[in-house]
Amino acid sequence: MFSLEERSLYVRSLDLWIDSMRPRERCYVSHGHSDHAREHDTIITSVNNARVCRLRFASRQARQRQATLLESIPPRVPTVFEEHEYNEPWAFENHRLTLFSAGHVLGSAQLMIEGELGSFVYTGDFKLEHSYTAEPPEVKRCDVLLMECTYGRPRYVFPPRAEIAGEMVEFARRTLEEGAVPVFFAYSLGKAQEAIAILGNGGLHVTVHGAIHNMTAVYKEAGVPMPAYSRYDAATFAADGALVWPPSGKVLPKALKDKPVRTAILTGWSVDPGMQFRYRADRGFPLSDHADYPSLLRYIELAQPKKVLLNHGWPDFVYRLRSLGVDAEYLAENTQLALF
To answer: pTM here?
Structure first.
């Protein structure tokens, strides 16, 4: 039996939470983005995602330590990581569990649970297209598939990544030729490393925010080849290349004060009309860490599940799947389903 409780998936027969947003005793964490990764007593995850989470949790723990000193709150016990390589199954409570690549960001993993009653796959966030910095994605056949459907509407069709990369390099070069600084807004985990790879391999000098610099060091530690880049320093910033910066607040660094800039946001939502007004950017590139609409359908075609469950996306994707003959359901709070 598994259920959706408190916006978190819970596998009762294994006493295992999945990507829970509340602290748990034992939880599987699919990847390091903050809408999936929280600190728990024990985290089951991939080797590379453990690296990512250690870095992300460290900054949170530093803030928490400061709060405990000010408010006399007992410090939290550090998380224990139970790390597993991709495609190396292990036995747990009469079931067989396997992690395999989701292709979303470094270390992102899907979870397969196999038991007497069948096989279940939880995708977490995933994409099927080639990535410059994340592990190649996989698809496994299963009886029940729980997948995210962030871009589950037909209008979300992304161009090939190589085409987007070419346009990003062209945008940066043209901006520099016109005497302005190209700034690419990208999340510090995933999008930023893709941007560094694209722009750096396109022959551009790349400067990055400190948080991006720290996360990219984790990628390098994991063996991901990265082109040359430098950490932003206001005293030495020369404005002779591209700047990769976190999108929060769109606050530009002090060194760009009074300098002409052209900004670009990296997100799949760039295909929506009026994107420039929504993100207050000069340009949008549909560089996404998620599967587009055709990829969602392709995943189901490859996995061949008997039942498809959906979360984290458009609920009306259910009806699009049903019209194609797929037995689909969108998970609602307190939904309980018997499988294990």
So the answer is: 0.91
